[in-house]
Amino acid sequence: MRIYVHIPFCESKCVYCAFASVVGNVDLQQKYFQTLLKEIEQCKENETVQSIYIGGGTPSCVDKKFIEQVLDKIKAHFRVEENAEITLEANPCSLSKEKLKFYKDIGINRLSVGVQSLNNKVLKILGRKHNKKQVFLSLKNALQVGFTNVSVDLLIGLKNTNIKKDCAKLLKYKVKHISAYMLQVEENTPLKSMIENGSQILKNDDECVRDYENLAKFLQKRKMQRYEISNFAFEGYESQHNIGYWVGDKYIGFGLSAHSFDGNFVRTANASDFETYFKGERDKEVLSKAEKDEEIIMLGLRCKYGFDLTKLSFDLSCCQIFKEMVDNNILLKDGSIVKLNPKHYGISNTIILKLLNCQ
Ligand SMILES: C[S@@+](CC[C@H](N)C(=O)[O-])C[C@H]1O[C@@H](n2cnc3c(N)ncnc32)[C@H](O)[C@@H]1O
Ligand code: SF4
After folding, report:
1. Where in the chain does DSSP place strands (E)?
2. Does domain 2-245 have CATH number 3.20.20.70?
3. Candidate from 87, 89, 170 with most ligand 1 atoms within 8 A of CB, to mutate
């Protein structure tokens, strides 16, 4: 079983972000962590925990004692595997050396640092608080403190960014994992209004596909494998937590807007506004067989692990489109395991949609 903990606080709100997070005052944070600890304590699940992901928001921007209390509570309440991957999401400007040492001491063994870009002008447009210098300082400090498993998040799709050059610089700081996300223009964000008002800050689709392909080649040469459409890692440094999501493991999400999944058909979601969350209300969604099939195909084809035909509720191998894709090496079939040929990651959405029509 996997555990996700959501920390919905940030130092400022980035123009593109639609995640549940606020620039929180101390009183709200106090109340939030009290509720969160109670939520963990009241959880009835008793399976062994293989990974913990403390995400957000920006977990590194809240008082570090809150993070310690959350981890202590999880460890007291669940059996956490000795070598469990424990990730903390962080922003470069809130990662002091002292904080890093503290995180290391309480058992965090993986950091996911939100770099986004190494172009200071672009960072400013995005509403980020940090600059390039702070990125390098935080990565250097993380190394010195002894973090050997550091991931960075970058955004693809912004003009005046050069993701290959950024990665070359970041690799000098021994980062082991890179998540390169295609920038999504989300509803009700300042970015959406900027684009509607004519701001020309985005690359076009072809440029984005080319950026991904060039990045994949560049990182492949340096022995970093693209193990999911947006994720690259050196061998042994793939995110165990995210792999758990992609292969359909059971997970529990604690905190505002966090989701849980029973590994079968039931998904629940915490409220994404504070008042309802404080009341403890959860939404329950039972997936239909068709929805579950969709999820298996979609998640499996986005990563190198693929999906198992025998897990579907229908016989996909009878479908003509599927057969043609296998014959044309678009899909790689080995027994009942089906994977998307990495050459076609750029058009994965189209391929997935065609397969879903076989249902
Ligand atoms: C929820 S954030 C948490 C990390 C941390 N708060 C930060 O931003 O540095 C995780 C990652 O999601 C990505 N992200 C957020 N909004 C996005 C969007 N609209 N499109 C693509 N990626 C996005 C960013 O790369 C970010 O690092
Ligand atoms: S991208 Fe990260 S730092 Fe920016 S508002 Fe969203 S969660 Fe906060």
Report:
1. 2-7, 49-56, 80-90, 110-116, 150-156, 177-182, 225-228, 231-233, 251-254, 259-261, 266-270, 282-286, 307-308, 331-334, 337-340
2. yes
3. 89
